[in-house]
Write a structure and sequence with these properties.
This protein has helices at 13-21, 53-59, 149-154, 213-221; strands at 43-46, 85-90, 98-101, 106-112, 115-124, 132-141, 176-182, 185-194, 203-205, 209-212, 228-231. The chain is of the alpha+beta class. The longest helix has 9 residues, at 13-21.
Amino acid sequence: MNSAKTVSSNRDDATLLECRVGLLSRRSFLTGSAAGIGALALAGCVTSDGMSVAEAAKVYGPVPNEKFPIPAIDVSKVDPKYYRRTVRYETKEAPGTIIVDPSNYYVYRIEGDGNATRYGANVGRDGFRWSGEAYVGRKGEWATWTPPREMIKRQPEAAKWARGMPGGLDNPLGARTLYLYQNGAYTLYTIYASLDAESIGNGITSGCVGLLTQDMMHLYDQTPVKTKVIVLPA
C-alpha cells in the first residue's frame, strides 16, 4: 500500500493502523494518514432553520427496516448546535463536495447556491488531527472490520476478529462507511457512522470522522464514489 507516503513524519505505521481498525469500542475506532494542505478560505454560518429537540427526536429516531435495526439516538446528549441543518456556506467547491471542519466539529456537504448541509461530528483527538484533500474511493454498508496483525499484537483481545468482524451494531465501522483515498491508494481514513451521541463535538479518534448514524446514512445516500473530500486544518 502506497498510502504510507502521505503520512506525517512524526507518526509510525503502527499508530496509523489504529486508525484503520480502531478499538472494539466505538469511542476508540480510528484511523490515520494523508498529506497536509494549506487552510482554505471557507466559512459557514447558521441559518434560522435550526432543528428543535422535538424535531431532532424524529430525525434521529429508530430505523427499524435496516439489516440491523438502528436504535434512536438520545438527542438530549447532543448539543443542539450539532443537529443536522442547512447553513449558508460560501465556497468555490462544486456541489456534492464534502468539507470537514475539525476545529468546530462539523462536516459540510456543499449543496450549491451558497448553501450546505451541516452535520455535527467527532474528529481526531489532539495529536491525531490531519488536513488534506482526498476523495471517496469506495463505500460500505455494514462493512466487515478486520484488525491488522500489528493491532492484535498491541491489543490481544482483538485477535478473535483476525478473520473479520461481521457488520452489525457493535462493529466499529457502523452502518455506513466512506473510505478516503489519495492517488488511488486508501489513506486509512474514513467517515463512519456512530451511535455514540456523546462523541459528537469531541476529539476522540486517531483521525477518522464520525457522524451520528442517521446523519451518516443521509450523507452516504447522496455521496457517489469519486466525491471530493477536503479536511481543513484544525
